[in-house]
Amino acid sequence: MTTKTTANLPLRLRLRRAAGALVVALGLALPLAAPSPAIAESTPTPSPTQTPQHAGVQLSLLPEANGSYVSGSPLTATLTLRNDATAGLGAGTVHLELGRTALGDRRAVTAWLDGSADAPALAAIGDVRTTVLDAEGTSRTQVVVPAADVGTLAPGVYPLRARFEAPAPSAGAPAPTADTRSALVVAQGAPATVVTVVPITAAPAGDLLSAAELTALTAPAGALTAQLNGVAGTPAVLAIDPSIVAAIRVLGASAPATATAWLARLETLPNERFTLQFGDADATAQAAAGLAAPLTVDDFSPFLGPAGTPTPTPTPTTTSTGDPSTPPPADAAIDAVARARADILWPRGELTAAQVATMSHYGADGAGTVPILPSTSFTAGAKDGAVASRGMVDGAAVLVSDDAVSRALSTAAGEPDATARGGALLTANAMLWFDAPGSTVLAGLSRADTRSEQGLTNAVSAFSGGQEGRLDRVLSSAPAELSLATESAEDRAAAVVALNQDADRLAQFATILERPADLTVRQRISILRLLGVGVHTKPAEFADALRAHRTATQKTMDAVGIQPSNPILISPKVDVPVWVRNELPYPVRVRLNVVPSDARIEVPAATDVQVQPSSTVRVRVPLESHVANADVTLSMSLTSPTGVAIGPQRTTRLTIRAEWETIGLIVFGSLGLLLIGAGIFRTIRRRRKAADEKHAAHGMDEPAREETHE
User: Fold this and answer.
1) Which helix (H) or strand (E) holds 141?
2) Dihedral (C-alpha) 241, 242, 243, 245: value to the nearest 10 degrees?
3) With 0-12 CB in 10 A as exposed, 13-18 as middle and 19+ as buried, what is 611?
């Protein structure tokens, strides 16, 4: 056996030694099974760039070609040793072991690789001597095990293990150890070809992605940019959420330049594509609720600018080898995606045969559609077995994504670490062994808004066989008769029914707006997002989200109402104050209806009221009473201009005391007369006092008079 080791010191140690980058290359082969000539790889694998998540020694063993092995040839693998501890690691030995009995099925492979199964009988095939490794350092060793040491292997998936041992760093300290599990895949014929479907999705904070969100997502390091970079030049089939396209187009000229460039690039990529339902909503739930047609969004007026029309996507100069796409015509839907087929659905897999039949007519105007369902939805797949990629369920066509392969490729697509990504690809290869040789396997990556650019490229290309990922190849293959092993998700079916009922009530409420679509379109989008395939995947999470959504809907319908007062009226004719509140961000038009409890009280039966956004307006209701004293109740309600009741009815109690007006006039009149009399008296007295003082000054006697007392 031959090895070549590359040790990579951590950056902080290299800087501390002020010597730039220091690479230590050491190799030593100690054969165990049989001495053989040495053959070493010359190109080391680059180190992972991930920050260590835990302390200790980590070991991985990745045979080349994602584990594919041709019996009778040397075994070449990459052995990675990582020291996450804060202390250095002494030289040690890695023991390589191989099982001679193939793993029986996918469950056995999964149990072996994830460590949940006990190790079968393993035979030693060689030892690798490792070098001293500094703290937080990583070394990679290219190992070549001669064919004679491996032995002859029949087609199958074989367990492979590496165990690391090193002396204890000090007396009394535990000896560092680590082990890793891997596998060898010996093909039984032509390998299966994988057509990989990649969902392009992005979850906004609101109804549509905002300009700020689009700026971040389509920046050079943004998640949507990474998605396109990852699929460019690959045979990936793209499943595009049309809400992303709509969000860019409705912004018009205010859309970020990076977003319009991203959309133009998407439309020029040669990759085959189809559109998901808006917001990646789950068609299964809608079929389970009995909807004859899926929910759609066909009105984007609430999101358009003053001009009322979106800015078309510019056609860039493309260097793609495929035919350049063109923007949709001016009369096309705002969320239309160029060259995207509309006859494919990709829902959740909890469904019945009747729901498959319902969904088969979910195309435009009832056109035919074919759903992509996970293999676990079917009898064989529920037992982790392979399922044909095309089937029929009671006469309805379905496409089947291999769940085990899809999960492994999804893990690889999200891994920025080359070693972890290699392990996921090896798992996918092991699962593919159980598909028919030379067959076409459909794999669908999990819904994820962020993926590793390199990981996505590797996941799509690793098993494509260099062929373009054409759905037509899958759709034209011979179908297998399949039986479903799942039941309908009744909680989601009931949710769709309840959400549609809420939407109908909100549509009636929205007639108070100048443009009802301001509420109804947003409600429809929020429903579709709530039903998204990749969100709220656990029943408890979905129940919480549904409860929050319905509470928010009710809060919207409670945002307009009456705030009455209870005044005391002292006049038979008076204006009764009534406050109408509007907590919506839109102006509303309502009709205030008033009905008195006493026929002798006259009030207008209806008063039209206009209330500005987020404000309260005072309405004066003229009242005329034909009774002097009474306690009256006014029943008040709001309706829309079309007669829809808005908010709850309110009552206000009025205390009418009409005679108080006469009493008040008498009292105020008497007070006025007293004040006038007092003024006259004081004027006369001042004049007399002035006359007396004048007479005294001239020596004149005062005329005799009777003294007046106040």
Assistant:
1) strand 138-145
2) 120
3) buried
CB 210 within 8 A of CB 178: no
To which residue do tokens 């509309």 refer? 342
Give the whole-angstrom CA distance, residue 667 versus residue 675. Answer: 12
**Which amino acid does the sequence have at 615?**
S
Query: CA–CA separation, 433 vs 190, rounded Å?
Result: 10
pLDDT digits (tens, 9 = 90+) for 564-614: 777 776 677 888 899 999 999 999 999 999 999 988 888 999 999 999 999
Residues 6+ apart with CB under 8 A from 646: 509, 512, 560, 561, 590, 637, 638, 639, 640
pTM score above 0.85: no
39-68 burial code (b ≥16 CB/10 A, e <16): ebbeebbebbeeeeeeeebbbbbbbeebbb
Which secondary structure element, helix H or strand E, spans residue 459, and what is its range? Answer: helix 453-461
Q: Residues 69, 185: contact at Cβ < 8 Å?
A: yes
Structural tokens at position 501:
């009922």
- 611 is written with which tokens? 């209330």
For residue 141, report the phi and psi dihedrals to the nearest 5 degrees: -125, 125
Measured between alpha carbons, how far is 429 from 187 in angstroms, rounded to an integer?
A: 10
Q: Using CA atoms, how far apart are residues 611 and 487, in angstroms rounded to an integer?
A: 50
The per-residue pLDDT for range 391-447, each reduced to its tens digit, is 999 999 999 999 999 999 999 999 999 999 999 999 999 999 999 999 999 999 999
In sequence order, the 6+-apart residues with CB closer than 8 A to the CB of 525 are: 207, 208, 243, 278, 279, 297
Q: Specify the range with the lowest mean pLDDT, choosing from 11-20, 57-66, 486-495.
A: 11-20
Residues 441 and 402: beta-carbon distance below 8 Å: yes
Round to whole Å and give the CA distance between 674 and 30. Answer: 127
Structure-block tokens of residue 575: 């204006």
Q: Is the dihedral of CA 593, 598, 604, 605 positive or negative?
A: positive
Buried b / exposed e across 152-181, counting CB within 10 Å, b at 16+?
A: ebeebbbbbbbbbebeeeeeeeeebebbbb
Buried b (16+ CB within 10 A) or exposed e, 271-302: bbbbbbbbbbbbbbbbbbbebeebbebeebeb
> And the tokens for 294?
């899926």
Evaluate the CA torsion angle 185, 402, 121, 177 in order and state its sign: positive
Token couple for 292:
């004859």
pLDDT at 599: 86
Distances (CA, A) of 593 to 268, 597, 606, 646: 58, 13, 4, 11
CA distance 685 to 338: 104
Q: Bridge partners of 588?
A: 513, 611
- For the chain, the farthest-separated pair of C-alpha atoms sits apart, in whole angstroms, at 159
Residues 589, 640: Cα–Cα separation, whole Å: 7
Nearest to 200, CA basis, from 231, 175, 177, 172: 231
CA end-to-end span of the chain, whole Å? 135
Q: Which of 179, 187, 136 is nearest to 158 (CA)?
A: 187
Give the contacts of 41 (CB within 8 A, at least 6 positions apart): 4, 76, 142, 144
